[in-house]
Known about the structure:
It is a single chain. The chain is α+β, with helices and mostly antiparallel strands. It has a single domain (4-173, 230-242), classed as NADH Oxidase (3-Layer(aba) Sandwich). The protein has helices at residues 4-10, 25-36, 55-64, 69-72, 85-93, 104-127, 142-149, 191-211, 220-228, 236-242; strands spanning 47-52, 76-83, 134-135, 155-163. The model has no long low-confidence stretch (mean pLDDT 91).
Amino acid sequence: MTSTTLDLLNxxxxxxxxxxxxxxxxxxxxxxxxxxxxxxxxxxxxxxLVVTRDKATIARIAEIAGGQPQVAAAEVxxxxxxxxxxxxxxxxxAGAESVIQDSAEGIMVGAVDAGIMLQALQTAAAALGYGxxxxxxxxxxxxxxxxLLGLPAHTFPLVGTTLGVADPEQAGQPKPRVPLAxxxxxxxxxxAAVQQGVxxxxxxxxxxxxxxxxTQMPSYAASCAMYYKQIYFPHIAAAxxxxxxxxxDQ
Length: 250
């Protein structure tokens, strides 16, 4: 018997059209409380959330993210913030000074924990019937997000998610993925399988887009080439440094 959780994970898709119906305070509290139980490295709890309901502020976040209409239409926007202020305060309480925020490992810890938190938020929201979309576009202008949210040093807005009631008349479908054998490999990495999977997926995704009536959408290869032939968010390192993060080992 398939569990509800597996159904939610297997049917996950980005929701870009909302009805405008509100997200109840009780449901939002439940989503946030469930997400807070997500694991974090060494229980440092170095993630904070900034929950935005004000429509003018959401509209500004949409602008920062590149004018994304699905952000502007959301009822709630949740910014996942890497936050070393919390473990730094804990270390001082124990009579020590934290240095993790000055290391490459610190940045990795923050990114991993933020990804786990995003998944927890979206799964909890889906369990209550809400749609969402992960928004990495806030990194297009991280300093603008830092200023908008009043983020202090040693914090960083890594990713966000929209939240709202999905419009059933414009429902999306789960997008296919690369073949499982080229994604989950037995015992050792298999480069040949990865490369073969790319070729297979190129055809599969093209057929899927066409079946959705979205013939204008780029193929997998074209999409990767379009984004990854350039550093499309070119201000990340400077913004990280400005927030007191340093990518070093010692």
